[in-house]
Amino acid sequence: MIRVLVADDHHLVRTGFRVILEIEEDIEVIGEASDGAQAVDLAASARPDVVLMDVEMPGVDGLEATRRIVAADAGSSVLILTTFDRDDYLFAALQAGASGFLLKNGTPEALVDAIRVVARGDALLAPEITRRVIATFTKRGGPTRTDGARLSELTPREQEVLVLLAGGATNAEIAATLLLGEATVKTHVSRVLAKLGLRDRTQAVVFAYEHGVVTPRG
């Protein structure tokens, strides 16, 4: 059973999400939070598998709440609700450790699928999100730091996988590009994340652009 905490400052929105999610046999809404501080407290006490997090909330917003939940390392993944109208929000959420992003105007099916993806430990990083990350780095002027020691731990093949991850490629797409089996690609991805100390594919994209592994195109 996937245990979900819904954090949104609008009661009707929280109720709507609960109705959608509790129809599913494998999803249980274990709590609701009306602001970021409450979300952090409930995440610590209830330890949900997934926190469905709004960004703009009174007091502690969703970005700061995400940072605190991820830093607590209690096993909860954060799925951000976004409208894509603020690039700074998107990038800040990536840096905070969010595992996925969801459009607020998406379908109920997309919401359910996203929660399942994040709950099983994968990152939900759609191509449009990757494009936003690239655009953000282009505006910021490119990589901000280097980490040669950590990068040197990657084998040449793992470096190739990291570059493809940074482009938003799925395991199937990486397998096709490198002429590998998907199981082998999954192993390579796991090793890349472990060696770089990253939680998921989302953080891998941020790392790749921050450290100059790939360069945004103008």
From TrEMBL:
SMART domains, A to Z: HTH_LUXR, REC
SUPFAM superfamilies: C-terminal effector domain of the bipartite response regulators, CheY-like
One Pfam family named in its UniProt record: GerE
4-aspartylphosphate found at: D54
Keyword Transcription regulation attached: yes
UniProt keyword annotations, A-Z: DNA-binding, Phosphoprotein, Transcription, Transcription regulation
GO MF terms, alphabetically ordered: DNA binding
Domain of life according to the entry: Bacteria
Domain HTH luxR-type per the UniProt entry, residue ranges: 147-212
GO biological process, one term: phosphorelay signal transduction system
Domain Response regulatory: 3-119
Matching InterPro entries: CheY-like_superfamily (IPR011006), NreC/VraR/RcsB-like_REC (IPR058245), Sig_transdc_resp-reg_C-effctor (IPR016032), Sig_transdc_resp-reg_receiver (IPR001789), Tscrpt_reg_LuxR_C (IPR000792), WalR-like (IPR039420)
Protein name: DNA-binding response regulator
